[in-house]
Specification:
Elements (H helix, E strand, L loop, with lengths): L1 H19 L19 E8 L7 E12 L2 E11 L2 E14 L2 E14 L13 E14 L5 E7 L2 E4 L8 E5 L3 E8 L1
Length: 181
């Protein structure tokens, strides 16, 4: 079941990335109906979708924009004793400086082989399904970005593949500061 969910999410992310990545978005001075935020954002996030990584460095690219908001693809990297790669699709909605951001994604983790306290060897790697509901501060045309919010994570195949989904963290939160260009 968890492998099925993982494959479905991978296909959705790949489809959205390939289908939307090459669409251009423009923001004309005459068009007052759109949000008109910068296309690219780089930010550092504490906690959040990197899961057990505590922090992540992220790049976000605006893929599609209309008068109600925009759709963006995010890719990140975090390294502790494990390598975490958060990937997500985010929708951003709002007016002026204050926005709501909602997203769904997946964090890939590649572990250094470890033995837990019960002597069981941990998987080489595991994945998690992530979501986010964030407040986002970003001025139209501005360069500074601030995000804070709820980032639940569903870990699966964390200890042993046969155990399936074993850890759900609903109390995760995250905050980030960044630069838009």
């Amino acid at each position: 079941m968890t492998q099925f969910l993982s494959r479905i999410l991978n296909v959705i992310i790949l489809f959205l990335y390939c289908g939307l990545c090459f669409q251009s978005t423009t923001c004309n001075g005459q068009n007052q109906d759109s949000i008109c935020l910068k296309k690219n954002t780089f930010y550092i996030e504490g906690l959040g979708n990197a899961g057990l990584g505590l922090y992540s460095l992220n790049y976000e690219r605006k893929l599609y924009e209309n008068k109600n908001g925009f759709l963006a693809l995010r890719a990140g990297l975090s390294c502790t004793y494990e390598w975490f790669f958060p990937l997500s699709i985010n929708g951003v909605f709002g007016e002026e400086n204050h926005h709501t951001e909602v997203g769904l994604g997946k964090t890939l983790c590649f572990k250094v082989p470890l033995i837990n306290k019960h002597g069981a060897k941990l998987d080489k790697d595991f994945s998690s399904i992530t979501a986010n509901v964030m407040y986002r501060y970003q001025k139209p045309g501005g360069r500074f970005i601030f995000r804070i919010g709820w980032t639940p994570v569903l870990y699966y195949n964390y200890i042993r593949p046969s155990w399936g989904i074993i850890l759900i963290t609903l109390l995760d939160c995250g905050a980030s500061f960044g630069y838009a260009f």
